[in-house]
UniProtKB/TrEMBL annotation, chain A:
Residues 372-387, 418-439 have a biased composition (Low complexity). InterPro entries: AAA+_ATPase, ABC1_TM_dom, ABC1_TM_sf, ABC_transporter-like_ATP-bd, ABC_transporter-like_CS, P-loop_NTPase, Type_1_exporter. This is ABC transporter. One of its GO terms (molecular function) is ATP binding. Gene3D superfamilies: ABC transporter type 1, transmembrane domain, P-loop containing nucleotide triphosphate hydrolases. SUPFAM superfamilies: ABC transporter transmembrane region, P-loop containing nucleoside triphosphate hydrolases. Keywords: ATP-binding, Cell membrane, Membrane, Nucleotide-binding, Transmembrane, Transmembrane helix, Transport. It comes from Streptomyces minutiscleroticus. Residues 65-347 form the ABC transmembrane type-1 domain. Residues 1-43, 360-450, 695-716 are annotated as: Disordered.
UniProtKB/TrEMBL annotation, chain B:
Belongs to the ABC transporter superfamily. Lipid exporter (TC 3.A.1.106) family. Residues 380-614 form the ABC transporter domain. This is ABC transporter. It is found in: Cell membrane. SMART domains: AAA. Keywords: ATP-binding, Cell membrane, Membrane, Nucleotide-binding, Transmembrane, Transmembrane helix, Transport. Pfam families: ABC_membrane, ABC_tran. Residues 16-32 have a biased composition (Basic and acidic residues). InterPro entries: AAA+_ATPase, ABC1_TM_dom, ABC1_TM_sf, ABC_transporter-like_ATP-bd, ABC_transporter-like_CS, P-loop_NTPase, Type_1_exporter. It is a multi-pass membrane protein. Residues 1-32 are annotated as: Disordered.
Length: 716, 620
């Protein structure tokens, strides 16, 4: 089994990042002992894992090495003590010389003081630096995680991430402080001790050397087994963390259904599994202790017997025997401790492995293309092809689709065109951009507002989706003119939220391109892009900060009270002023809990506070009552007048905020038009907006048949 | 070297935390829930009490093991003082005895060690299992308003890092302590037996050692408290960021977060370093005492051997014992380390466990009466109910309200009017400050949880999905439901189609490939869950807010059939819901300002008539 695992790793190079996350969760709870994929990958040796820590240790390497040297010296100082003893026994004691005894004791005292100070020095040297290494690694992890694709976070339970950031890093720090140093120190100590003993009496020394080989073999075997179990235990701790987290986040559901008992049972199952793994770990550890304790002890016994014989024969002085045994006993601790030092190292190795599983996941990278070259290309295309069609092409296209009523056929024909010419070479977006720019220029609008927001042949499928699954978004062609507000309407699960996530590049479109004022969004840095685009999410998340800070997150750093007040009033979130400490009231995880409607309005305020050029609102008013909704709409209209906006909408009142509406259906934009146009001409839209019941049950087939009907009507 | 003296002088225990929140008064803010005095020890004792017998066995094993280990030097003394002279007289008897005894001791110490490690691991793991379970169960029993204040990050840190530090104490520390104490006792006894004078010197050295240990304990105690608070703050920030990664990214919070995290992380780093330095001081001190004692004993012993009043073998044994005596001093430090950090953690855990659920389970539960009719619904009465937060601030002034069995009641009103509070009182997420909420005449506070949840189920706007399959998520409503019943519930609510479209249908893991489920779909799952639970009273708090209109219609159609005869309270901003309601309550500032049949109210001139008109217009 081990070999197959090794093969997998060598081919892949590193573990598939999905695996550990996949392993979490209820599947395990349902069937805890099975855990089919439980044996962790023995991808790399512990040593190779641990070597990866080097970059983090590097900054403190001087201190660490000094400390290690100090520890070696201190430990060897301890070995001198038996020699002094020997000198006392064979010298002053044998000679009955009391003054010599004083001298010997003085030596002992000096050595003792030196040893104590050296050990203290070692700890002092590494205390702060190692705390720093742990903190540094944690900060790196946090930094890195914040920059990993959102898709990564979709896959990984945050409990698993958290356990890497806490327990695992503590293990790493402890490893650097103890096992790493002491494996070195103990090896040197044992070596020096052996040499001392061999020099004193090589026969006895050899006797003590005998168990070394079996002990080493056992340690090696043990290391292999222990690694497996240690990894398993750590993953199980992660699973446990996930259950705790979910049971807290879902507390209302757990309570609402009185499910805390079954939740507790699930937790109990998992912790029992963990207990089993920990016990297996303990048994391995006990076995290694058994070997490590017994074998050297037997050797010492043999040496004692042999030594006694030789002392009686006069071949050996009593002092030498005392010193010899004293040294052997002094070496017991270094030898004994190897067992748990190895265990700790092994745990640290798996902890390191787990840490790097996350650190190896690739951050979102900016594409190579620079903004300059991209926009230059765009402009060139515009000047080359734009002028001729500029007046005609732009926005007649989507409405034409709707009028034709051939919502199914039209995109396909375009697909053919698109694939023939290739998305990048498709001249149309550039042409539109040029056209609009011309128009705007004449009208004297904002100079930067040229081109609007354009989706051009955009497709998206989740990177981890099964190969045979249809893409979430098959081909999106949509143009939102500068200053226009477009509502996005579609059935539940049609991909509206996914579509909005593509604009700030929370997910990356898998094909086609999205342009803001003619600039491909992949050509600008994400920072820049996200400064241009503000989003209000479906689930309004507030952070542990004051209300004011939460809202001003969406604004430029220099924004102040005035902007805050304006945004709060737009979002009808003036309740914030009435909170205990006004806009300085703490909210979020660690603060006052607000209602869904209140959070939603603050999230909306956050989105509009920075007067972004592009605004994406995902069902921004769902939690508001009719009255508040009307007020927000009135205020929002003024904001929307100044920006280019895409608003996901579920109901007519929200749709009416928009100038035009796009209907998303089966991964395509099926129709674009004003609310009233679509209501008349598009059956699916009418169905979505009124819930018209004439078709009976809400099946997926129903809209299509009605579409056909509408086609006929439209044709008439 | 450790904390800045100014803060140390003024705020001994929690300066780090106090600085963070200058409000400071709330124990929740400081992450230091008060535990009654002695609660920590009581907790530890109650954890170990059921395992008393096994603890005794483990201790016995260790006792024997130490005896076997500590026999070594004695055998050395015997060999030098007896076997050597005997050999010279050609008597091999003593030597054979030494050899046999050493063999026996080696075998015993190894075997007993094995047995002890396994036995103690069992104890440790059982204690941890118990403790983890207690924390979890207690956290689950605590009321919703507790969770709203305590935050998930802290709870996670209680049941992970804090439990972990107890694990360290138990699995490494405690074993160390017993071994250290035992070897102290054994070795002191041996030394005293070998030679009273030498032994007395060794025992005398325990005095300064004890003082050192005490000083270390005192100082480390404070540091470990601070460290535990610091790591909890790190965890809270970490968890919050990862759970809100989308807005973090969209609003470019990465750098600001890095900064905020750095501050918290630094604080932990500093306390961590302080703890390690404190340990360094202790190690130097104890080593100094130990090595001085060794030098003293050797001096005196050698002097006496030289003057002929002490046998050489005795001195040799004494010296060998001495080295062993002070060897575990470092380990004692390690124990103290893990003890301190575990004590700090245990105190936090005890503080959590000491929280009394503000919505406690009844001590003498009453059953619900038999239904009065064949219909599943039950009557709900709010009897002189008033609700205010403990911090003050009245949400619902005193009111009374009766909802007859089988009635569907819509509650409307602006955000913050108290609709959700009303629902939470009915679902017993909160208990009223005054008055009673009755279900068929029985106070909700008198109902055992299973009975209560058969009676009342609430579906909220936040439709949280647990990791696991879609089917498992629906089955939360009724864990013993068959697959057929699960699908039935999903079909009734119009969720069947989308679920069948998922890669593995009902068996799709919501966290795995292809398992992405939109907010609207999650609400459908939540609905199916509630239907499956089959309660007498169903509360829907904004439960359709993320659905599109057809979805909402489907749900309403389902409710017309499924809710028939059930009592239902529906809170919705969109008045389409009202179409299925028998009765409408309009709330404003915590009061019910209108109450009547929908048609009646619409025809009138009140708030609801206005709202309804506005809503009609919005549908245009």
């Amino acid at each position: 089994m081990a070999t197959t695992r090794v093969d997998t790793k060598d081919r892949r190079g590193r573990p598939a990042a999905g695996d550990p996350a996949d392993r979490t969760g209820r599947a395990d709870r349902a069937d805890p002992p099975a855990r089919p994929d439980a044996p962790p990958r023995r991808d790399r040796s512990a040593v190779r894992s641990l070597l990866r820590l080097w970059p983090y240790v590097r900054p403190v390497r001087a201190r660490w090495f000094t400390a290690a040297v100090v520890a070696v010296v201190a430990s060897c100082t301890g070995l001198v003590i038996p020699l002094v003893l020997k000198w006392i026994v064979d010298g002053p004691v044998a000679d009955r010389d009391p003054r010599g005894v004083w001298l010997g004791a003085l030596y002992l005292l000096l050595i003792g003081v030196a040893e104590a100070l050296l050990f203290g020095l070692r700890r002092w040297l590494v205390a702060r630096p190692l705390a720093g290494v742990e903190a540094g690694m944690r900060a790196e992890l946090y930094r890195h995680l914040q920059r990993l694709p959102v898709a990564f976070h979709d896959r990984w339970a945050s409990g698993q991430l958290l356990s890497r950031g806490t327990t695992d890093l503590m293990l790493v720090r402890m490893f650097l402080a103890f096992p790493l140093t002491f494996l070195l120190v103990n090896s040197v100590t044992i070596l020096v001790g052996m040499i001392i003993m061999l020099v004193q009496d090589w026969v006895l020394g050899l006797v003590l050397l005998v168990p070394a080989v079996p002990v080493m073999i056992v340690c090696w075997l043990f290391e292999k087994k222990y690694a497996l179990v240690a990894r398993q235990a750590q993953d199980q701790v992660g699973d446990l963390t996930t259950v705790v987290e979910e049971s807290v986040l879902g507390i209302r559901i757990v309570k609402g259904f009185g499910r805390h008992r079954s939740q507790a049972r699930a937790f109990h199952e998992l912790s029992r599994t963990l207990r089993g793994t920990e016990l297996a770990k303990a048994r391995l550890l006990a076995a290694i202790w058994l070997v490590i304790v017994t074998l050297p002890e037997l050797a010492i016994g043999a040496a004692l017997v042999l030594g006694t014989v030789r002392v009686s024969d006069g071949e050996l002085s009593a002092g030498t025997l005392v010193a010899f045994l004293s040294t052997a006993l002094a070496l017991r601790w270094p030898i004994d401790s190897i067992g748990f030092l190895l265990a700790m190292s092994q745990e640290a190795a798996t902890a390191t492995e787990r840490y790097f599983e996350v650190m190896d996941a690739e951050q979102e990278r900016e594409r190579e293309r620079t903004p300059e070259s991209a926009s230059a290309a765009g402009t060139a295309a515009a000047t080359a092809t734009g002028d001729a069609e500029a007046e005609v092409v732009p926005d007649s296209r989507p409405t034409a689709d709707a009028a034709e009523g051939s919502s199914e056929a039209a995109p396909d024909s375009r697909t053919a065109v698109g694939s023939a010419s290739g998305a990048a070479a498709d001249p149309r977006p550039a042409a539109d951009a040029a056209a609009v720019r011309a128009g705007e220029g004449a009208g004297g609008g904002e100079p930067q507002g040229t081109g609007g927001l354009r989706f051009d042949g955009v497709a998206f499928r989740y990177p981890d989706a099964p190969a045979d699954a249809p893409p979430v978004l098959a081909r999106i062609d949509l143009h939102i003119r500068p200053g226009e507000t477009m509502a996005l309407v579609g059935a539940t699960g049609s991909g509206k939220t996914t579509l909005t996530a593509l604009i700030p590049r929370l997910h990356e479109a898998t094909a086609g391109r999205i342009t803001l004022d003619g600039t491909d969004i992949t050509a600008m840095s994400r920072r820049e892009l996200r400064t241009l685009v503000a989003v209000a999410f479906e689930e309004p998340t507030l952070f542990s900060a004051t209300v004011g800070e939460n809202v001003l997150m969406g604004a430029a750093p220099d924004a102040g009270e005035a902007e805050l007040a304006r945004a709060l009033s737009v979002a009808q979130a003036d309740f914030a002023h009435d909170l205990p400490q006004g806009t300085d009231t703490q909210v979020g995880e660690q603060g006052l809990s607000l209602s869904g409607g209140q959070r939603q309005r603050l999230a909306l305020a956050r989105a509009v506070v920075g007067r972004p050029r592009f605004l994406v609102l995902d069902d921004p008013l769902s939690a508001l009552d009719v009255h508040t909704e009307a007020l927000v709409e009135a205020a929002l209209r003024r904001v929307l007048a100044e920006t280019t906006a895409l608003v996901v909408a579920h109901r007519p009142s929200t749709v009416l905020l928009a100038d035009r509406v796009a209907l998303l259906s089966r991964g395509r934009i099926a129709a674009v038009g004003t609310h009233h146009e679509l209501l008349r001409t598009n059956a699916e839209y009418a169905w979505l907006m009124s819930g018209a019941t004439e078709a009976g049950a809400a099946g997926t087939g129903a809209p299509t048949s009605r579409t056909e009907k509408t086609e006929k009507e439209a044709g008439r | 070297m450790t904390a800045p003296p100014t803060t140390a002088a003024t705020a001994p225990a929690d300066d780090g935390a106090a600085k963070r929140h200058d409000g400071g008064g709330d124990p929740f803010d400081r992450d230091a829930l008060p535990a009654p005095p002695g609660a920590t020890t009581a907790l530890l004792r109650s954890l170990l009490a059921p395992l008393r017998a096994r603890v005794a066995v483990a201790t016995l094993l260790l006792l024997l093991q130490q005896a076997a280990v500590q026999a070594g030097p004695l055998l050395v003394a015997y060999a030098i003082d007896r076997a050597v002279p005997a050999l010279r007289d050609h008597d091999t008897g003593p030597l054979v005895m030494v050899a046999a005894a050493y063999l026996l001791c080696a075998g015993l110490s190894g075997g007993l060690q094995y047995a002890f490690i396994v036995a103690s691991a069992r104890i440790n793991q059982d204690v941890l299992l118990d403790l983890r379970g207690r924390i979890f169960r207690h956290a689950q029993a605590l009321s919703v308003d507790f969770h709203e204040r305590y935050t998930s990050g802290r709870l996670i840190s209680r049941s992970t890092t804090d439990v972990e530090s107890l694990r360290e104490l138990l699995s490494e520390g405690l074993q160390e302590l017993i071994a250290v104490v035992l070897s102290f006792v054994y070795i002191s006894a041996m030394l005293l037996w070998l030679d009273l004078g030498l032994g007395a010197v060794a025992v005398a050295s325990f005095g300064p050692l004890y003082l050192l240990v005490r000083r270390y304990r005192r100082r480390a105690d404070r540091i470990f408290q601070l460290r535990s608070t610091a790591i909890a703050a790190v965890i809270v920030k970490f968890a919050e960021t990862m759970n809100g990664i989308r807005p973090v990214r969209a609003f470019r919070r990465e750098e600001a977060n890095d900064g905020a995290f750095r501050v918290l992380n630094r604080r932990h780093e500093r306390t961590n370093g302080d703890a390690l330095l404190e340990m360094a001081q202790y190690v130097v001190g104890s080593r100094l005492v130990a090595n001085t004692a060794v030098a003293g004993i050797v001096l005196w012993g050698a002097y006496r051997v030289a003057s002929g009043s002490l046998a050489l073998g005795v001195l040799a044994a004494a010296v060998l014992y001495l080295r062993r005596l002070y060897d575990p001093i470092d380990r004692l430090g390690m124990f103290l380390n893990s003890y301190q950090s575990a004590a700090a953690s245990l105190e936090k855990i005890a503080g959590l466990l000491a929280q009394v659920p503000s919505v406690p389970e009844p001590s003498a539960p009453r059953p619900l009466p038999e239904r009065r009719s064949a219909r599943p619904g039950r009557e709900v009465v709010f009897d002189e109910v008033r609700f205010a937060y403990r911090t003050g601030g009245e949400v619902l002034p005193r009111f009374s309200l009766t909802l007859p069995a089988g009635q569907t009641v819509a509650v409307v009103g602006s955000t913050g009017a108290g609709k959700s509070t009303l629902a939470k009182l009915l679902a017993r997420f909160y208990d009223p400050s005054d008055g009673r909420v009755l279900l068929d005449g029985v106070d909700l506070r008198d109902l055992a949880t299973p009975e209560l949840r058969r009676g009342v189920v609430m579906v909220t706007q936040e439709a949280f999905l647990f990791s696991g399959t879609v089917a498992e998520n629906i089955a939360v409503g009724r864990p013993d439901a068959t697959r057929e019943e699960i699908e039935q519930a999903a079909k009734a609510i119009g969720a069947h189609d989308f679920i069948s479209g998922l890669p593995d249908g009902y068996d799709t893991d919501v966290r795995k490939r292809g398992g992405r489920i939109s907010a609207g779909q999650r609400q459908l799952v939540a609905f199916a869950r509630a239907l499956l639970a089959d309660p007498a009273v169903l509360i829907l708090d904004e439960a359709t807010s993320s659905l599109d209109i057809p979805g909402e219609r489907a749900v309403q159609r389902a409710m017309l059939t499924v809710l028939r005869g059930r009592t239902a309270v529906v809170i919705a901003h969109r008045l389409s819901t009202v179409e299925i309601a028998d009765r409408v309550l309009v709330m404003e500032h915590g009061r019910i300002v209108e109450d009547g049949a929908p048609d009646e109210l619409i025809a009138g001139t009140g708030r609801f008539a206005d709202l309804h008109r506005a809503w009609r217009d919005s549908l245009a």
